[in-house]
Design goal:
It is an enzyme of class 2 (transferase). Part of the RNA polymerase complex. Forms a stalk with Rpo4 that extends from the main structure. One of its GO terms (cellular component) is cytoplasm. The protein is mainly β. The protein has one helix at about 20-35; strands at about 1-15, 40, 45-55, 60, 65-75, 85-95, 95-100, 105-110, 120, 125-130, 135, 140-150, 160-165, 170. It folds into two domains: about 1-75, Dna Ligase, domain 1 (2-Layer Sandwich); about 85-175, Nucleic acid-binding proteins (OB fold (Dihydrolipoamide Acetyltransferase, E2P), Beta Barrel), CATH 2.40.50. The protein contains one helix and 14 strands. Strands 1, 2, 3, 4 and 5 form a five-stranded antiparallel sheet that branches. The radius of gyration is 28 Å and the shape is elongated.
Length: about 200
């Protein structure tokens, strides 16, 4: 889910960035330093949308830079468990499919692709359902639900687990397919008890 997040931080502005428009210099520095960062609390910083100084800067002896307390507005993306997301399949492997959702990729494990036994087909490359014949391949647009989130220090190290094993999830075309229903084999009728009078 996307959020607008406001934070306060002290920004170091080197002398080369001193100008009549210090707020623009602070914004440029924040964009360079913060965009793409990951934080367990606020998620992934997608963009710095605004930044401005709060008061006068401070100078530290031996450092020509000035330090400004600043208020910064961020566009962040934080995946939330049970959130429904939409995206395209970017990769298919024997153990599952990867979906691009926002600035990060999530994994749909092979057991979570469909409510059917699904096998990997290297020729697609993608997956085929045994009974339903549903297919999933690179480029397909899908709807999935987030089931697990592990946010680390970088986007590459963060992990998102997804499922498509529920009604309304998966490819839109799947909703139009007829579901194959297996009818149980009828049980053999019980033999009638033998008649006769008891002595």
């Amino acid at each position: 889910m996307y959020f607008i997040t406001k934070i306060r931080d002290t920004i170091r502005v080197p002398p080369t960035k001193f100008s009549s428009n210090l707020d623009k210099s602070i914004l440029d520095i924040c964009r360079e330093d913060m965009e793409g960062l990951t934080d367990a609390e606020i998620g992934i910083v997608v963009a710095v949308t605004d930044a401005h100084k709060l008061g006068e800067g401070k100078i530290i002896p031996g450092d020509a830079s000035a330090y400004f307390d600043s208020e910064i507005s961020l566009l962040t993306y934080k995946p939330i468990v049970n959130e429904v997301v939409e995206g395209a399949i970017t990769e298919a492997t024997e153990f599952g499919a990867f979906i691009k959702t926002g600035p990060v990729e999530g994994l749909i494990h092979v057991s979570q692709i469909a409510d059917d036994f699904v096998s990997y087909d290297a020729q697609l490359p993608g997956f085929v359902g045994r009974d339903t014949k549903k297919t999933l391949k690179i480029g397909d647009q899908v709807v999935a639900r987030i089931v697990s989130v592990s946010m680390k220090n970088t986007v590459a190290d963060s992990k998102i687990g997804l499922t498509m094993r529920q009604p309304g999830l998966g490819k839109k075309e799947w909703a139009k397919l007829k579901t194959v229903v297996k009818t149980p084999k009828s049980a053999k009728p019980k033999s009638a008890p033998k008649g006769g009078d008891e002595a």
